[in-house]
Amino acid sequence: MAERLAGKAAADHLYHKTRERAETFSKENGFSPCLAIVRVGSKPEDLAYERGVRRHAEDAGVALTTRELPEDVTEDGVIDVIHELNSDERVTGILLFLPLPQGMNQKKVVEEIAPDKDVDGATDASRLFTYTGAGAGFAPCTPEAVLVICDEYGISLEGKHVVVIGRSLVVGKPLSMLLLKRNATVTVCHSRTRNLASITKSADILVSAAGRIGMVTGNMVRPGQTVIDVGINFDQDGKMKGDVLFDDVSEIVDAVTPVPGGVGAVTTAVLLSHAVPAV
Ligand code: NAD
Question: Which residues of 8-25 are buried (b: 16+ CB within 10 A; e: fewer)?
Fold first, then answer.
């Protein structure tokens, strides 16, 4: 039976480290680091994520403020709020919930976030930083959470073959860059990849970020592997499920992350850690 790589232990350690950094920041600056959430409307998934952040902000020593904007706010209305938060020195991080309502030029709005406050790595400046190390910004939180889990459980990446399923700008692509920085050998698979199972079986570490319930089955893995499930999907009964068929896969591989309670738990901890500037 595979080791269950729960996210809670990794998240708790990161909250502890973030809190220590936040205390140092507060002493040096006379105010606490503060994450500003900008939310247009009240989508249930946004509210659920916000509740999670709120529940843990104190653990990380980060203050939280929310700008809730009406569904019919204009593009300029959102940009005005972002400008106000950019110039407020007490706001150290900005999380803008995406997607924005239809009709808004999302890219234009996102690009207004100051790179040093772009805690979820949404701007081009953050992408440049993630892909080249140049300038200011952050990697998106979820790919970084995958590395935090590996570090927590002593899973070294150096020289390992890591297969990533998914090539989105939010997870798959930035994750492959972060893995390369750790000297892994990375293969990125996607919806047009042929013979997926033969590639996934060749991995030392398999990360799935496809957004397909139970698509990683027992016949795509082999003994000795670590499997990290980034997928957050909901079945017909509204139950959260990962990409990995957990019971099937955990009979075969060495270690696997659960959903819920895996990568998702760590993503919030990474987000709050990004809201504390280096001192
Ligand atoms: P996306 O839809 O933008 O990208 C999915 C990727 O998977 C695409 O590149 C696609 O080519 C690939 N793919 C889809 N079906 C495939 C298949 N059958 N075989 C091979 N590749 C396939 O999704 P995303 O935003 O990258 O998110 C992926 C998953 O991660 C979703 O379940 C999402 O909810 C989850 N997610 C979790 C967190 C977290 O905190 N844990 C954060 C962000 C996203």
Answer: eebbbebbeebbebbeeb
Could you list the beta-strand ranges (E) of 118-271: 161-165, 185-189, 205-208, 226-229, 233-234, 240-241, 255-256
Q: Give distance in angstroms: CA of 46 to centre of ligand 1.
A: 18
Selection from 151, 157, 125, 149 nearest residue 138 by Cα: 125
Q: Enter the pTM of the model.
A: 0.96
SS3 238: coil
Q: Which two tokens stand for residue 241?
A: 């499920």
| Best mutation site among 56, 168, 169, 213 for ligand 1 pocket (most ligand atoms within 8 Å of CB) | 168
- Tokens encoding 254: 């060495």
Give the pLDDT of residue 279.
Answer: 75
**Alpha-carbon gap, residue 185 to 55, rounded angstroms:** 37
Give which of 113, 233, 252, 118 is closest to 166, Cα–Cα: 233
Residue 278 confidence (pLDDT): 85
Query: In this structure, what token pair is assigned to residue 81?
Result: 């709020």
Query: What gap in Å lies between CA 193 and CA 214, rounded to an integer?
Result: 18
- Bridge partners (DSSP) of residue 229 are 208
d(CA 89, ligand 1 centre) in Å: 35
Contact by Cβ (8 Å): 26, 32: yes
